[in-house]
């Protein structure tokens, strides 16, 4: 087969060198699905949200009565000597006394300065905070999976380019050997071709090592067997229609980190309400039903039994606590101020990150278009150079330069696409609308 024909065929299979292996084709949607089901951090965040949901109840807030049951069985054995008012003396060894008491009791705080209602609202806000944290965890982990996935895509493209140039280098060695055999080339040309071939083989092995290790990393992020083999899609498609104004609106409305800061501010407000509630009295009602049996070996009453209801109410009011109430309220106000500052700080940080990332996104798209043109030029230049080398009208160094130019252009193109995709992923992640 002629060298040029072989080269053209190799260019046609760019991106497909791994297609011959019996591996599953893992697309990014399936990778995300597996991560959502298996990832350990996502599972932990879901369980944390369950804990918050289970704790968001009226009982946890102290709004419901407390009912308890109790039983006490007391016994004693004593040596007793008694002298009664009439002069009689009673002496008894091992006199046994018994007392059995059991019953149920109810205590219900009916007013505590509205602390219980503020506590109930705080529990609800804690649940919302858990939901925001779960959303952020999902966005983080899905972003990581997508970034690693598209890193594999670009590495697969680079492997394809290296495989193509490796084949060309092998044929170059064969052609140089044939030229040397018939006396049209020196031994130096053969040796140079062999050195360049070995260099390409080294690059191929290093790239394959990186590719394999990145596969292991993706399997780890998917929380599955790290030895599972697979291949990824051959191309990276970048959404080039992102709008900065729309992204900024989305960040302000849906970013879970900013949402969490706003929830924390609301929690600080509720905590201040709970602190202020201590200025008011606490009113509670009590009720119960008790049964009591006693037995005494000596005394005027040797046994007794009583049973019945009890009920009443009580109130407590703090009159002086060393000015702690004032201090606690002041600290609560400062905490609330800090929460508001955190919101402003987070808004500014997100605005800065979105704007800088968007500029990087635009630059990467521009570079992607530029490198696509460069790669096409380098491909055409290599085809011409291969043909000229085949007929022996250019030196070896020009051939190798064209070969390396094509490799570098292919690597830069795949890297530009990858970097543009990473910028897209980060922008959508910040806006809280990453496709999941």
From TrEMBL:
* Gene Ontology terms for molecular function: efflux transmembrane transporter activity; porin activity
Signal peptide location: none
Location (main, coarse): membrane
Q: Which residues form a coiled coil?
A: 336-387
Q: Which keywords, in A-to-Z order, does the entry hold? A: Cell outer membrane, Coiled coil, Membrane, Transmembrane, Transmembrane beta strand, Transport
The keyword Coiled coil is annotated on this UniProt entry: yes
User: Cellular location of this protein?
Assistant: Cell outer membrane
Keyword check for Endoplasmic reticulum, yes or no.
no
One cellular component (GO) term of this entry: cell outer membrane
Q: Which family does it belong to?
A: Belongs to the outer membrane factor (OMF) (TC 1.B.17) family.
User: Which PANTHER family does the record match to this protein?
Assistant: OUTER MEMBRANE PROTEIN TOLC (PTHR30026)
Name by which UniProt lists this protein: Outer membrane protein TolC
Q: What is the lineage of its organism?
A: Bacteria, Pseudomonadati, Bacteroidota, Flavobacteriia, Flavobacteriales
């Amino acid at each position: 087969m002629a060298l040029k024909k072989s080269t053209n065929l190799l260019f046609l299979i760019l991106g497909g060198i791994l297609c011959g292996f019996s591996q599953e084709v893992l697309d990014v949607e399936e990778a995300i699905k597996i991560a959502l089901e298996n990832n350990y951090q996502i599972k932990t965040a879901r369980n944390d949200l369950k804990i918050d949901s289970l704790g968001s109840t009226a009982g946890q807030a102290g709004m419901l009565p407390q009912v308890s049951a109790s039983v006490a069985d007391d016994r004693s054995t004593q040596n007793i000597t008694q002298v009664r008012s009439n002069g009689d003396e009673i002496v008894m060894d091992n006199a046994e006394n018994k007392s059995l008491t059991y019953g149920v009791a109810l205590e219900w705080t009916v007013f505590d300065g509205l602390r219980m209602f503020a506590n109930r609202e705080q529990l609800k806000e804690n649940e919302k905070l858990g939901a925001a944290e779960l959303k952020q965890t999902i966005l983080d982990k899905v972003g990581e999976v997508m970034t690693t996935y598209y890193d594999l895509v670009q590495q697969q493209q680079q492997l394809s380019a290296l495989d193509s140039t490796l084949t060309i280098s092998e044929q170059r060695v064969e052609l140089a050997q044939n030229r040397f055999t018939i006396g049209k080339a020196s031994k130096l040309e053969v040796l140079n071709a062999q050195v360049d071939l070995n260099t390409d083989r080294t690059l191929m092995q290093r790239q394959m090592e990186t590719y394999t290790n990145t596969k292991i990393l993706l399997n780890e992020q998917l929380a599955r067997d790290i030895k599972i083999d697979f291949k990824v899609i051959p191309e990276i498609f970048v959404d080039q229609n992102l709008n900065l104004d729309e992204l900024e609106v989305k960040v302000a409305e849906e970013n879970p980190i900013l949402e969490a800061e706003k929830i924390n501010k609301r929690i600080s407000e509720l905590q201040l309400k709970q602190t202020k509630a201590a200025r008011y009295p606490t009113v509670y009602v009590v009720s119960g039903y008790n049964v009591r049996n006693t037995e005494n070996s000596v005394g005027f009453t040797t046994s007794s039994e009583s049973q019945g209801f009890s009920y009443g109410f009580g109130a407590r009011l703090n009159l002086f606590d060393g000015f702690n109430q004032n201090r606690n309220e002041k600290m609560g106000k400062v905490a609330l101020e800090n929460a508001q500052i955190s919101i402003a700080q987070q808004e500014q940080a997100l605005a800065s990150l979105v704007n800088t990332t968007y500029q990087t996104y635009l630059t990467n798209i521009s570079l992607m278009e530029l490198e696509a043109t460069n790669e096409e030029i380098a491909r055409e230049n290599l085809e011409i150079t291969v043909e000229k080398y085949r007929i022996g009208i250019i030196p070896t160094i020009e051939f190798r330069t064209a070969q390396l130019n094509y490799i570098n252009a292919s690597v830069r193109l795949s890297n530009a696409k990858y970097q543009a995709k990473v910028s897209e992923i980060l922008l959508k992640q910040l806006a809280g609308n990453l496709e999941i």
